[in-house]
Design a protein that fits this description.
Two copies of one chain form a homodimer. By secondary structure, chain A is of the alpha/beta class. Helix content of chain A is 44%, strand content 17%. Chain A folds into three domains: 44 residues, 434 Repressor (Amino-terminal Domain) (Orthogonal Bundle), CATH 1.10.260; 132 residues, 3-Layer(aba) Sandwich (Rossmann fold); 132 residues, Response regulator (Rossmann fold, 3-Layer(aba) Sandwich), CATH 3.40.50.2300. The first copy, chain A, contains twelve helices and twelve strands. A six-stranded parallel beta sheet of chain A has the order 2-1-3-4-5-11, with helices on both faces. A six-stranded mixed beta sheet of chain A has the order 7-6-8-9-10-12, with helices on both faces. In chain A, helix 9 links the parallel strand 6 and strand 7. The C terminus of chain A is likely disordered. Chains A and B meet through helix 4, helix 5, strand 2, helix 6 and helix 11 of A and helix 4, helix 5, strand 2, helix 6 and helix 11 of B. Chain A binds a DNA duplex through helix 2 and helix 4.
Chain lengths: 335, 335
DNA sequence: CTGTTAGCGCGTTCAC
DNA sequence: GTGAACGCGCTAACAG
């Protein structure tokens, strides 16, 4: 069952069938109909492998993320897949765990697949040496980016978001803050800078702890911070995973928010408003970011010489109970 | 840059190069080394499209889930990708939203891609008419299955899990339970049966509400149940999403667990132990299920005539505060 | 064990 | 606007 059979059935040549299905060169209406009819009748589907071999393109895109289980990437990937699907593009998924070796393997895989493009969340290290021309395909960066890199990107304004989050905490009276951030990620460091700026504006000193972006590490770092006396007034997380670790540590220590310690962080995960008394977070427009990323990629594929663009989106501060002024809240067992 | 160049560089024929890289037919050690050296020197990577066209295989697998954002599928997909990656297999991802039309599109896509196999979570409807032979590739079902279907599958023992969960609630004194379940899913219905059995064993009547498996629907159904007087003693969720909706409704109503209403459900999501006083759930071995699924698939690919197997795993009951006997707990504002 | 060679199915060029 | 023919890069069959 191949293009030849269709040509025979339609009474035309294979070239005509190819033209009808390719849809570039014009074909006479009667021939077109005959071909479509034959395709229908035979249930013909063109062979992608042959098509790719011949055309050197693959109508597939790559999605290379550090860990699909990170809710941010889960949501992004869903957006990417939605748009890709509506454009008849296959999505090839790869997790890197921030491991440069695995990143290289994934990108090689994408090269082998001759994908039309890749949406990538590079590790700090890869980002440092990122040259867009190194790959045979266009790349759109998501979530991670550094000034001067010649690549399309979709980002949160991390500096601004962290600054506003910190300002908010200060305005609630939480001046002694501990900032826990993923030290290996660009994102974490940019957020640290925003935090630093806000603290500096109030002549407050910064207590920041860089950790691996894992729940377990965040939990341990939080426990350490909570063992000190006096307690810090607030714990601030640079990501959703770190926030999770902080809340675990708090529960484990039997401390309450914001009575004993205020808490705030990033990523408006579904559970953040269910944890008493609700977690104050910067919400990222995750789905939108994924959608923008693939749209940027599609534009880049259609016009490789276009100037690169970085799309910087603003986070939304969701003020919930965890960051309330501690005097205002009843708390559990506080006056 | 192709196999011919490598052959020339190595001083052998293209067939020998192909054999070295294919690794099936034996090749003399000196020739092997020459080839590998040439491959290294030229940075040669075989063309997947050509390889696929010729060999009619694709070293890619499909992962077709209803929604990657469902934490269960997120975790499964991570396991699948891990194993696939270690076997040099590409993973093509597709979301169906339980929509039969989209399911068909996804499976057609997989056919076009000539994937070696697919891991699939079929909708109720697709499952009803599922014929393994309809596709050109082997399929392993995950999470959804019905007796008599000739396909490999990896499942939770839903009946048993729901039965144990219900028994546990009864043993804690929560005899008047409302069971909220995804009516469109096999899983939800099987869990309802387990619930029913446990209730019947204690001569208790069943109050079950079938809903669409969405947080919003679960929330609304919960609110409706919570408006009744007297309150039910417990709300039980047939899935993680439904559980989320229940907890939202409870917070919205200002009711406490288990003081006002006990709560229990499925899926040990990271936040279930953070929500006061911890949510009692059936934990599914999600990562393991994904790993088993792809291993089953690989075995099936290697031996298509092997008898099909259904792997049924047992859920683990995690007893937390939300299901405690209500007399035992302080509650907020209860004596 | 190795080399030669014939296609895999399609898109595209070149005549008509 | 159409058809014939070539070749994309590779693997598998066959002959040596």
């Amino acid at each position: 069952m191949n293009i030849k059979d269709v040509a025979k059935q339609a009474g035309v040549s294979v070239a005509t069938v190819s033209r009808v299905l390719g849809g570039v060169t014009p074909v006479s209406e009667p021939a077109r109909l005959k071909v479509l009819e034959a395709v229908q009748a035979l249930g013909y589907r063109p062979d992608l492998a042959a098509r790719r071999l011949r055309s050197r393109r693959s109508n597939a895109i790559g999605l290379v993320v550090s860990d699909i289980r990170n809710p941010f990437f889960t949501e992004v990937s869903r957006a990417v897949e939605d748009v890709a699907f509506s454009h008849q593009l296959s999505v090839i998924l790869c997790n890197t765990d921030e491991d440069p070796e695995r990143e290289a393997s994934c990108l090689n895989l994408m090269r082998d697949e001759q994908v039309s493009g890749v949406i990538l969340t590079p590790s700090q290290r890869l980002l440092g040496q990122f040259r867009p021309g190194d790959y045979g395909f266009p790349v759109v960066l998501v979530d991670r980016y550094e000034r001067g890199i010649e690549a399309d990107a979709v980002l949160l304004d991390n500096f601004d978001a962290a600054q506003r989050l910190t300002e908010h905490l200060i305005s609630q009276g939480h001046r002694d803050q501990v900032f826990l951030y993923g030290a290996d990620s660009t994102t974490g460091r940019q957020r640290l800078e925003g935090h630093r700026a806000a603290m500096a504006a109030h002549q407050l000193s910064v207590r920041a702890t860089g950790i691996k972006p894992r729940v377990e590490q965040a939990r341990e770092a939080s426990l350490a911070a909570l063992r000190r006396s006096p307690l810090p007034q607030a714990l601030v997380a640079s990501s959703g995973l770190v926030l999770l670790g902080i809340v675990e540590a708090l529960r484990e220590s039997g401390l309450t928010m914001p009575g004993d310690v205020a808490v705030a962080g990033f990523d408006n995960m579904p559970w953040t408003r269910l944890v008493e008394p609700g977690l104050t977070v910067i919400a990222q427009p995750t789905y939108e970011m994924g959608r923008e990323a693939i749209q940027l990629l599609l534009q880049r594929i259609n016009d490789p010489d276009k100037a690169v663009r970085q799309l910087v989106l603003r986070g939304e501060l969701l003020e919930r109970g965890s960051s309330a002024a501690s005097g205002r809240t009843p708390g559990h067992g506080m006056p």
